[in-house]
Specification:
CATH architecture of the largest domain: 3-Layer(aba) Sandwich
Radius of gyration: 24 Å
Number of domains: 2
Number of strands: 7
Strand content: 5-15%
Helix content: 40-55%
Shape: elongated
Number of helices: 10
CATH superfamily of the largest domain: P-loop containing nucleotide triphosphate hydrolases
Distance between the termini: 73 Å
Largest sheet: 7 strands, mixed
CATH topology of the largest domain: Rossmann fold
């Protein structure tokens, strides 16, 4: 085979390889919104037209939690040291709502258009290291990664990917990324899973320690607890004032408490569901 034929043959091979090789992943749509969702199929970010959130002022009964997360997020937006945060506790108490509200508050306070909120689903946590690599290439932006309802069940090993990503390995965690997770479990593992590890492991303390140490990767723990009747009513009153729902306060209190009893819980989520029902009965649109 002549040199010319060899060159043409090699050129055809190179062209064919370029056609079948996957394109290099790059995030180039960060100017299309304030919030994004990680798309595991493409490995890229899908812009959210309008983030589903409520104003920070409407989150009642969690003043201390608001102060902690707002201060940490402001530090991050202003290039100051900040910690990953685990928001844990009772369901429906405003954990994910607080993250989204704080993001909006920081945008308002600092005009930090470079601060983006990115949601990654629990089942995609194994791809977190690849996502961090992509985000780290966009130095002009800062990212709050939110994983809602994060927890791990028996037999799952994806928590190891999260541990590695939070630690950052030898490269370290990207300076432009902060990780916020919400969970009903303080240690992200069910109690029966931890007890099973103690009963079956050769060295129980080491086995449990490996799993519990995941929550230690979060510099900030913010606890949310079951709310009192008083706080539940404060939330309802605040919503009614915000959306100008006319109602007698005595009747409102009675109906709100009845609603919470039938739901078997008092929480911000239950209060919001009641207000939605109340607004519908009064033909009032809320957003």
């Amino acid at each position: 085979m002549s040199d010319k034929s060899t060159d043409l043959f090699l050129e055809r091979i190179a062209t064919a390889l370029e056609r079948i090789a996957p394109p290099e992943k790059k995030i180039n749509n960060l100017n299309q919104g304030e919030g994004f969702v990680f798309d595991s199929k493409t490995g890229l970010l899908r812009p959210v037209e309008e983030i589903n959130r409520i104003p920070l002022s409407l989150l009642q009964g969690i003043k201390h939690q608001k102060e902690i997360l707002l201060k940490n997020t402001l530090n991050f937006a202003e290039n100051l040291p900040a910690n990953n945060a685990l928001l844990w506790g009772a369901r429906g108490t405003g954990k994910s709502s607080l993250v989204k509200a704080v993001h909006a508050e920081v945008l308002t306070k600092t005009k930090a258009s470079h601060l983006k909120l990115v949601e990654i689903h629990r089942e995609d946590i194994s791809e977190l290291p690849d996502l961090l690599t992509l985000l780290s290439q966009n130095k002009n932006y800062k990212f709050i990664l939110l994983c809602d309802d994060l927890s791990f069940d028996a037999g799952e090993n994806t928590y190891k990917s999260l541990k590695a990503a939070l630690d950052g390995g030898i490269e370290g965690k990207p300076e432009n990324v902060l990780f916020y997770a919400t969970s009903n479990r303080r240690h992200l593992m069910p109690r029966d899973m931890m007890e099973n590890e103690r009963s079956t492991a050769i060295n129980p303390s080491e086995s449990v320690e490996e799993k519990v140490s995941l929550s230690d990767r979060f510099g900030i723990w913010v606890g949310f607890h079951n709310m009192s009747q008083e706080i539940f009513l404060e939330i309802v009153y605040a919503y009614c004032d915000e959306f100008k729902i006319p109602t007698d306060k005595v009747t409102l209190k009675s109906e709100a408490l009845e609603w919470s009893i039938t739901r078997g819980a008092r929480s911000g989520r239950v209060a919001w569901q009641f207000v939605q029902d109340l607004a519908g009965r009064n033909k009032i649109k809320i957003n």
